[in-house]
């Protein structure tokens, strides 16, 4: 599969989460996303960046801010095709497409632990034993969760780089064998 074939395939299967996607299809589309994000970043930098200079007591500060509208539009355009091709790529390695969402689901879980754990602790008297108990229990849960949050994207990345599952699996035929 060529670079242009991968882009054409991914945009034609915009919301297709069934079937399988080969490694070249996924990684060429990922390269396309990176290239367009760089181009969008340059456009945002050139046309949508505001620079503010502040001076006070021999200290000069320069601040550049941008709302990045072009990068936002590019991100919205490629979000679903990228999710769909990652989902199909997981199918190609013999895994459920839900594994592509693993880091996002873990981040949501970590935020829930932080919000509810610290929220419960703050509802008790400050400095009381239950306050300390819930705060420490939250930390005991948050530290392993943070470790998993660091490891899970690397695990998903490794799965996305694995070779195709040979032959037909539960998600369909091997893309390399069908193309030949």
From TrEMBL:
PANTHER family the record matches: INNER MEMBRANE PROTEIN YHAH-RELATED (PTHR34980:SF2), INNER MEMBRANE PROTEIN-RELATED-RELATED (PTHR34980)
Protein name according to UniProt: DUF805 domain-containing protein
Keywords: Membrane, Transmembrane, Transmembrane helix
Top-level taxon: Bacteria
Transmembrane segments: 26-48, 68-87, 99-121, 133-160
Organism: Ruegeria atlantica
Presence of the UniProt keyword Transmembrane in the record: yes
UniProt-listed InterPro entries: DUF805
């Amino acid at each position: 599969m060529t670079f242009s074939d991968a882009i054409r395939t991914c945009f034609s299967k915009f919301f297709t989460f069934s079937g399988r996607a080969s490694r070249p299809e996924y990684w060429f589309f990922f390269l396309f996303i990176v290239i367009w994000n760089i181009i969008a970043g340059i456009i945002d930098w050139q046309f949508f960046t505001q620079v503010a200079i502040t001076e006070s007591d021999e200290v000069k500060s320069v601040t550049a801010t941008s709302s990045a509208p072009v990068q936002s539009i590019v991100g919205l355009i490629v979000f679903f095709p990228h999710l769909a091709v990652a989902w199909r790529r997981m199918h190609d390695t013999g895994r459920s497409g839900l594994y592509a969402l693993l880091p996002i689901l873990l981040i949501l879980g970590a935020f829930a632990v932080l919000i509810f754990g610290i929220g419960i602790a703050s509802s008790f008297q400050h400095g009381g034993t239950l306050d300390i108990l819930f705060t420490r229990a939250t930390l005991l849960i948050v530290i392993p969760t943070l470790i998993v949050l660091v490891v899970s994207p690397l695990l998903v990345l490794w799965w996305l780089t694995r070779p195709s599952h040979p032959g037909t699996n539960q998600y369909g035929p091997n893309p390399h064998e069908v193309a030949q």
